[in-house]
Amino acid sequence: MVVKSIKRTRVPGADNRSDEDWAIRLGFYIHDASRLRRIVYDTALRPLGVTRSQAWVIAYLSRRDGMAQSELANQLDLGKVALGGLVDRLETSRLIERRAHDGDRRVKQIFLTAEGRKVVAKMRKIASATNARILNGVSARDVKATTRILRTVKGNLLQMVNGTLGADGD
Questions:
Q1: The whole model's pTM is what?
Q2: What is the DSSP letter of 89?
Q3: Strand, coil or helix: what is 98?
Q4: Which residues are 99's β-sheet partners?
Q5: How do the domains of the chain map onto residue ranges?
Q6: Which CATH class is domain 19-161?
């Protein structure tokens, strides 16, 4: 569905914004909420000594430990150089380790260390408490509905980036 401008009819006591105004406002709210969420998470993760980007990498590894570095870069939609820097810092912090693949010594697999698993456990507690505060006053039903909507929006954006969603929405 493409949001089109509609003729404005003033209704006393009603919100008289057009659908297009609401779509623009939604974009601002998504942007602002994302920016503020990053700030909140950066602050919450600081005591663990990891950045949000590093936390993203080790959280992903906690679900699929032992991934090849190139596969991890693809999954996280990061360039190999960008991921390489994150992996270097995480390895220096002893939260992860690189190991040569048994079948192909050129392939480097990335594994969480025992210390990395401890950090992941702490991150989960922080995420749970932080999400509870972020979503204070929002019903579980609304969270699920918003998630479905944002998943659709993300899918549309990905199709636009890839050139598969036309200007008219088809």
A1: 0.73
A2: H
A3: strand
A4: 109
A5: 19-161
A6: mainly alpha
